[in-house]
Design a protein that fits this description.
It is built from 3 helices and 11 strands, in the order βββββββββββααα. It has helices at residues 121-130, 135-154, 163-174; strands spanning 9-15, 21-33, 37-42, 46-49, 54-56, 61-66, 71-78, 81-89, 93-94, 99-110, 116-119. Belongs to the Ntdp family.
Length: 176
């Protein structure tokens, strides 16, 4: 399957556990691509929802995807600081069409002061029943949520000081 290379412009496809498309980001610039990690940047990219509605992102974002962790992280650069939106999800795959993952509903929103809130627990419980998430998936997701929260508290990975700013500089250089 390979992996997307730095400088490539790719789509990101989010699916639900039942295989239905959830959301598509039209264009993200790959800043780093390896078999285990993809870091990308985008700004004002078109997003298409499963019902066909579209919207455009409001601010620059750095996206972090890992092949071994069941979450992905989006750092959004706003005037009052960096906000993070973290999706509990399957690890990514790359199939030359797009970077793809399964969205498992639970999200963590992190504020510039590194406080955070867990979102969509009700949606997770509903979809767990409707789509019959296996117990092993439920266990993996909860374990990875704990791992993600540890990263936030310890300011590791994309939550480390200057991580998002440094990759945003790389993104701006790609735009020249």
């Amino acid at each position: 399957m390979g992996f997307p290379m730095a400088g490539e412009r790719i789509q990101i496809h989010s699916y639900k556990h039942n295989g239905c498309i959830h959301r598509v980001w039209e264009e993200t610039v790959v800043l780093k691509g390896t078999k285990n990690l993809v870091i990308g940047g985008n700004d004002r990219t078109t997003v298409t929802e499963s019902d066909g509605r579209t919207w455009i992102t409001r601010e620059p974002a750095i996206c972090y995807f890992h092949a071994h962790y069941w979450f992905n992280i989006i750092g959004m650069l706003r005037e009052d600081g960096i906000y993070y939106y973290c999706n509990i999800s399957s690890p990514f795959i790359w199939d030359k069409e797009a970077l793809k993952y399964i969205d498992y509903d639970l999200d963590v929103k992190v504020f510039p002061d590194m406080t955070y809130i867990l979102l969509d627990e009700d949606e997770y419980q509903r979809h767990k029943q409707e789509m019959k998430y296996p117990e092993v998936i439920d266990h993996i997701l909860k374990k990875n949520l704990d791992h993600l929260l540890l990263w936030i508290r310890q300011r590791k990975g994309p939550f480390a000081p200057d991580f998002i700013d440094s990759w945003y500089e790389q993104y701006l250089l790609q735009q020249l």
